[in-house]
């Protein structure tokens, strides 16, 4: 663990030095949300991040689920520090960024997010500069938000570049996913949603579930929600959770892992097709999120 932490500090220090050489990068900020719990949102987010990284992308994973943070548990990693320690200036950004499987950098959840909304201007500037020091070196920053639509989750969604909505074919999950998108769209009509159907029996069920949500959104919200892909119901996923190893690493040839690989390629393809869209970067995200502008 000590060697791993030291390696990370050296990595971050090197990335900080590169800032002056490369200038400020612009990461795509992605929030992953769900209308209800139990649909596999956090597991999807973790494995999606790892799959992006396996394709050569620079990824930072942020556990933003207030009170129910569990990404570290899914990875089998004991997080020594979290956001609270940065806010209290008890630890630096280099220390709170933990390393997961395949050297995936992540910031553990826990207490602290609530305090962000009452920071002094000085503390807010400190927090922003600390996060930006590493985040601007990333291409993708993923925020795993809490299930449902709390005030905090709404702020995350409204401030990000993309919002991936995870649901399952289960009727209440479909209803809650649509309800989330409806409420967000009413307040923030420019938000771009992308739909993921998890735990499906086959492609027919995935397509039927997607069509039901998309047709309803098109009819009542006048908005088109792209269907990004699906993940098969796969016992390997259950076994991986029990082993605390991401399924994309534990069982790379499983149906779920192959589905995720296709889904990730589709996401990257859609990302390239919208490359002309202006990205705000982490500083723009934090400004909108914390100042609520």
From TrEMBL:
GO terms under cellular component: cytoplasmic side of plasma membrane; cytosol
Residue span, AAA domain: 28-187
Transmembrane regions: none
Domain of life where this protein originates: Bacteria
Keyword field contains ATP-binding: yes
GO biological process per UniProt: negative regulation of cell division
UniProt keyword Zinc-finger, yes or no: no
GO MF entries: ATP binding; ATP hydrolysis activity
Keywords, in A-Z order: ATP-binding, Nucleotide-binding
Protein name (record): Cobyrinic acid a,c-diamide synthase
